[in-house]
Amino acid sequence: MIETKAISNEELLLQFEAKIEAEQKIEPLDWMPDEYRNHLIRQISQHAHSEVIGMQPEGNWITRAPSLRSKKILLAKIQDEGGHGLYLYSAAETLGVSRDQYIQWLHEGKAKYSSVFNSPALNWADMGAIGWLVDGAAITNQVSLQRTSYGPYSRAMVRICKEESFHQRQGYEIMWKMMEGTKDQQEMAQDALNRWWWPALMMFGPHDSDSPRTGNAMKWKIKRETNDYLREKFINKTIPQAELIGLKVPDANLILLEDGTYKHGDINWDDFWKNVNGNGPCNEQRLDHHIKAHKEGSWVRETAYVSGKNK
Amino acid sequence: MENQDTQGELWEVFIQSKAGQPFKHAGAVHAYDREMAIENARDTYTRRGEGTGLWVVKSKEIVAVSQNEEGYFFDPANDKVYRHPTFYEMPEGVKNM
Amino acid sequence: MEAKLKYYLQIADNALILSHRLSENCSKGPFLEEDLANTNVALDLIGIAESIYGEVAKQENNGRSGDDIVYRRKESEFLNVILVEMPNEDFAHIMVRQFFTDVFQLNLFSELRNSKDEFLMGIAHKSLKEVMYHLKRSSEWMYRFGQGTDEAKERVQKAINKYWKYTHEFFLENTIDTEMLKAGIGSDLSIIKKNWQAKVDEIFEMSNLSIPDTDFSIEGGKNGLHSENLGYILTEMQFLPSKYPDAIW
Predict the structure, then answer these.
(1) Which of A92, A231, A276, B43 could join A204 in a cystine, given CB atoms 3.0 to 4.6 angstroms apart?
(2) What is the rounded average pLDDT of the residues A82-108?
(3) Which residue of C has its CA nearest to B37?
(4) Residues 132-191 in C contacting B (C-alpha not used; CB under 8 Å)
(5) Quick one: average pLDDT of C148-171?
(6) How far is residue C17's CA from residue C41's CA, in Å, rounded to a whole number?
């Protein structure tokens, strides 16, 4: 076999950065700096875990969905979340880490998932609020990530965005129907908005000024827009949607600016960090659920492995 | 004993969106055998009627070219413009060519 | 309610209650792909049930909707077999319950393609494709259990032994079945039983699994007499419409 001439790391880095500058995608077999790879491993797996853990709050209501139509939609939506987790694990695996390893890191607490899913889903309107706000916030972020510089991640995002377009609509439809309904239903809807509004805003992460990892992630185009920019984009499109159906956003300090955009009140970051560090209302429950299912599935995976090998 | 509690092997999924169209890479699934691989691909990637045909192949069986090789692998084809139809001059008014 | 509509409900209730059990398992699968596949089966079954309930409502023509039939019906008016109410004990139980039901539904829909009733004929054609796929999956799992590890073999055999006594109810001919068979609407349960048995024998032999040596049978669901499980299923399923009877969702 003929060896190609060795290229120095500096040259490879220059080539890599030139590629990114030219908006070309980085592919799994391409050379990439360790820091880029590690950032992707962390970000994509966190994204994958979030999709999978995110199945649980809504899963809590599948068996109590109030109509066959809503049950079907909810089930299909939760299944989509699982599918999106799967796409993302596959993208993350191209970085040389197995899904087994990612799951182990999750169970050991070494990998995070979006802390929004540590909130409880307490009434049926939460299905509306999650679809409308949580998926709405996620989509804002994901649309931007379709242009991320890592090829497999970008392609997963394109597929996910295409599929998620119905998620936010189904959530908003639930809220709308409830606001058109009885007094009980209206109260449930407002209650759900009150509880999910701030966690949804926190999904975009800390303010840019406090976000330690934004630097290189922006330079290497892993992230394409900053936390604050995306958060504001989300707020500006969501508040009019709330008002249209008679809901009130739970922010006493909200100000409508002259240009039609909004300035939101202070976010309670103590709550956010408490949650991220494992002390949210459902952290233990969500992780335990995942660990339990994984453990109970162990013999199934083993027999599938053995029978597959013997075939 | 080897670890049998795994997520199975990784398989690449290719979908044909319409009869007669080429198969396009869609993503990957995990599976423990061939039947499961094609079913998992079906249950994951064609839930919205995306396809009329499916292929799966074990990821480790795929042969790929890396960036370091790209130069000598692909550049030689760049100057063979005569392989492309636009290379040729045609008299004005010629049809069905 | 006329016999034909009760016949419809037997089919729809089996699909609905089984889909409920499967949907309980969403996010609890042994690995992600299996979780998605399981949910696809649940969605197919809800789809089948939904179209039948809609048709019942249409033919009743008394203002009751398909959802009313699901969400505002008493336990004793549900006509599903007891097997589909059985809880999700482990993946082996889930798959054995599925396998037995898949083989039944495959043969039922296969027969109903010849029904004189246009609606049943149509739904049988449509559902048959879905059920064939369900059965392919559950059969393959029988093989993976039976030809895999010792633990899997033990678990699956335990589930088979436990559920065997509930399978006879599929073929128990009640007065509705008899009337529908005579009218050329319903299917012949003795034919379905023969074909069901042959398919189960084939898959079990391939998978090195065995059928328990007993004729003991537990039945009643088809006539509205259920296990204790159904009460809990309906309590959960009907919770919102029961608690907020005036609300539209």
Answers:
(1) A231
(2) 96
(3) C33
(4) 136-137, 140, 144, 149
(5) 98
(6) 13
Name which of C170, C188, C191, C171 is nearest C180 in CA terms. C188
pTM of the model: 0.93
Helix, strand, coil proportions of chain B in percent (round to 5)?
35, 25, 45
Q: What is the model's pLDDT at position A5?
A: 61
Residues 190-229 of C with CB under 8 A from A: none
Three-state DSSP class for residue B11? strand
According to CATH, the superfamily of the domain at B9-87 is: Phenylacetic acid degradation B (3.10.20.520)
Q: How far apart are CA A277 and CA B54, in angstroms?
A: 43
Name the residue among B42, B8, B22 with its Cα closest to residue A90.
B8
Question: Mean pLDDT of all residues in chain A?
Answer: 93
Q: What are phi and psi of A256, to 5 degrees?
A: -90, 120
Within 53-112 of C, beta carbons closer than 8 Å to A belong to 53, 66-67, 70-71, 90-91
CA end-to-end span of chain B, whole Å?
Answer: 66
Burial class (CB in 10 A: 0-12, 13-18, 19+), A252: exposed
Assigned CATH class of C3-243:
mainly alpha
Which tokens hold the place of C92? 């082996």
CA A262 to CA A251: how far, in whole Å?
Answer: 11
Q: Are B33 and A307 in contact (CB < 8 Å)?
A: yes
Write out chain C residues lying below 8 Å of B46, CB-based.
none
DSSP state of A275: I
**CATH number for the domain whose boundaries are A24-310:** 1.20.1260.10
